[in-house]
Write a structure and sequence with these properties.
With about 375 residues, the chain is mainly α. About 75% of the residues lie in helices and about 0% in strands.
Length: about 375
């Protein structure tokens, strides 16, 4: 026997475990990337949308439409993934641009309709409330996400994740202590209360959407890759955009956009710049949110959204001169504490988990192959 033909058992074990290591590393990298994308969208979208409202914009359905109208930009990474597969895959195996099957397509349509309705609720609330007040109400979304995640996907809670939800919720509650002082002077009490109710409805509805997306991944009868996640996002946003387009037609928004642009306080050019950047930044939010659900869970996506609340508060102070009371500093500290608590518990869970060699070999290939996503 030639010496080079002999196989070292340890080498064999390393080869078996290699796909698991590569898949785990890529999943962690995707998680970090999606958290960054979500951070940009979550902090930037309410700021730029509020900029539209305070300088003369008042079309609710149009601003709702902008939240998802930027979805065609997702075609670029989908096309890049397709070209990469074309250059590396076996020519005889075939290569499709879109992998979504009918069952998943129908689920994405339902999610898109709910998203369009949620967009309208949120935009109406933001048109009536300051960013700081709207953001603290949206923070209640974490409690809704946790509850629906428990009911829909049987989310398991640890002492650390419960502590994180509690701290982040309390952090939002602290902000509510002086929210009444932020009410616009020229707004009626009825309008303010209605804005509050619509924002709370938006928080509850999106708290339902995130676990529903996770449930869709679990129930899909096909392999879920990150490329497929982008396809789901594209269909959801196209349907939500169509939903809001109907609202714009009924409300005659298309007829008055030109006039509103000319009367915009910052000028007509900046009106369209605000609209374009709003559409782009909102895509960061939606893609980042469902990307975090894919890489981790709907609960983590809700945690990331909530922990960014104080950052949005600070940006509102810088750009709109909103007040930064001591309560907002306390909220920032509580939010960071909750965020660290969640990740400390997750790291501790991973370290204490000791799989047997048989379990390790059986799970060497992750259920959601990431290699097909590029």
């Amino acid at each position: 026997m030639v010496e080079g033909d002999a196989k070292n058992p340890n080498t064999e074990q390393m080869e078996v475990n290699q796909p698991k290591h590569d898949g785990t590393t890529m999943r962690k990298a995707l998680l970090v990337i999606n958290c960054i994308i979500l951070s940009i969208g979550n902090c930037g979208s309410p700021i730029i949308m509020r900029l539209y409202f305070i300088h003369g914009g008042n079309r609710i359905w149009f601003s709702s439409w902008l939240e998802t109208a930027g979805c065609p930009i997702i075609l670029l990474p989908i096309a890049c993934a397709y070209m990469h597969r074309s250059s590396t895959a076996d020519p005889t195996s075939g290569n499709k641009l879109f992998y979504m099957e009918r069952r998943l397509f129908l689920a994405a349509i339902v999610l898109g309709i709910i998203t369009g309705l949620d967009n309208n609720f949120y935009c109406y609330g933001l048109s009536r409330l300051p960013v700081s007040t709207s953001s603290l109400i949206i923070a209640s979304q974490l409690a809704f996400t946790a509850g629906f995640a428990f009911l829909l996907v049987k989310q398991k809670f640890t002492a650390y994740s419960i502590n994180a939800v509690f701290l982040l919720t309390i952090g939002a509650g602290v902000l509510a202590l002086h929210s009444s002082s932020d009410r616009p002077a020229n707004e009626s009490n009825k309008e303010y209360i209605l804005g509050f109710v619509m924002t709370l409805a938006a928080a509850a509805l999106y708290g339902f959407i995130l676990p529903l997306v996770e449930l869709t991944y679990k129930k899909a009868q096909q392999e879920i890759s990150y490329a497929l996640v982008m396809e789901i996002q594209l269909v959801m946003c196209l349907v939500a955009t169509a939903f809001c387009t109907v609202g714009m037609l009924v409300n005659n928004d298309f007829k008055v956009i030109g006039r509103e642009a000319r009367e915009f306080e910052l000028g007509e050019t900046k009106y369209y710049i605000v609209a374009i950047f709003s559409a782009i930044i909102w895509q960061c939010f939606f893609l980042g949110a469902i990307g975090v659900v894919f890489c981790a869970s709907s609960l983590l996506s809700g945690v990331v959204i909530s922990v960014l609340l104080p950052v949005t508060e600070i940006l509102a102070v810088l750009f709109f001169n909103e007040k930064f009371q001591a309560e907002k500093g306390v909220s920032l500290a509580l939010s960071l504490w909750g965020f660290l608590s969640y990740f400390y518990g997750d790291i501790k869970r991973i370290k204490t988990k000791k799989p047997t060699p048989e379990t390790e070999m059986a799970s060497s290939l992750p259920p959601n192959s990431l290699e097909s996503s590029v």
